[in-house]
Amino acid sequence: MSDIESVPLEIDFGELFTVPRVRSNSEQVRLVDRSSVRFELNRKQTKLGDVVIDQWWIPLPGLYGDRKRKNRNYQEILDCFWGWCQHAGSAADNRHVQESFILATLLPEARSNGARRVFRDAFVTGPSKEAKLARYAEVPTLESMLKSTRQETLDSAAFIQKTGEILGAPEYDDEVRDCYDVISREIFDDACAALEKGDANGVRIALTDWRDKMRTISRRSGRKLEKRVLDVLSYECRAAFHRAYSATWLVLLEALKQRFGMTFQEELFHRFWHLDHTQIAAETPNASRHLFHGHIFGLHPAFGDFMLTKTGAEMFGDFLSAANQDSYQRLIQGLLIAVYHYDQRHQNSTLNRTPKETTDADVESTDAKVKARRRGTRRLGHPVEDSDDP
Prior knowledge:
Layout: E1 5-12, H1 13-16, E2 36-48, E3 51-57, H2 72-88, H3 90-93, H4 95-106, H5 112-118, H6 129-137, H7 139-148, H8 156-167, H9 174-196, H10 201-218, H11 224-260, H12 264-274, E4 278-281, E5 284-290, H13 301-308, H14 310-322, H15 325-353, H16 360-374
Antiparallel strand pairs: 1-2, 2-3, 4-5
Helix pairs in contact: 2-4, 2-11, 4-9, 4-10, 4-11, 5-11, 7-15, 8-15, 9-10, 9-11, 11-12, 13-15, 14-15
């Protein structure tokens, strides 16, 4: 099975929730109003060095609820995650879970370019045939980098630090944090209070407030502090969706094992590739830190490039075969090299585009042009910012 195969997979909630429901403080909270979830998966046979596995994945186009692309898996992931949380009781009692669900639901209307100013995960090349050829042309460079560093190792703490330095995960000053606290309370407080009572309008409350902020802040000149906070929240929308995606893959793995069978190596691969890995923070025992900053290895373009290389595939195969600390640390060292390579390509792509930086004056001029069109006249002005943010 070398070609990609499309496989629909339906999971009944009765099958999913095989343990008794946990009683919560709010018994008004109901399960998702549906009996099952249905995913559209892809499968192919993948060779990783000496290891051959059946690789499963959710198709990426439209996965994030993009406005221009429809992908039913986005809503299925949200329903699966929320149904699971409601069954466990955390939907009513856990503010962190409630905020995660709300943020993941807001994702299609978030500032996608703004989120990538917080943590870079944009594809350097587009979906066209020419863009794909340009991507493949860079594979030999990454292969050479991986080959020359193949025996090097890296621990998890260093991986977290270095990938954060390269891709984002910035620190914010008190002014940004204070503004973030104010805007977050405005979005979440009433919405979470409604969810605690089992009111399905909780998400709608947050969505209404978010749209209002996008209209009054995101699309207006000035207010740079508030826009920066909206960028942070937009990335948190992506990170929240990754948590829902990760939880869903725990469900999918059980279903795939039962229906299709799965070797130890196949399960290890999919757990590494599709889960959001966390570990207890040594400096704060009650908190956890994310190995890849709330992102998923299988969804970041840097690691798609890694899998195209011969050495990268062999390093993954070594990890699946040995499943020990040494092979793991060599693997994440290789993934770090892929991040360096991605960063260089991203910088080169940015330099080649050399866009003009948009100023507040540009936005004001754009507003004036819109008003002029409404009056039936036209004025000359500066170009509009190239952005897919609403």
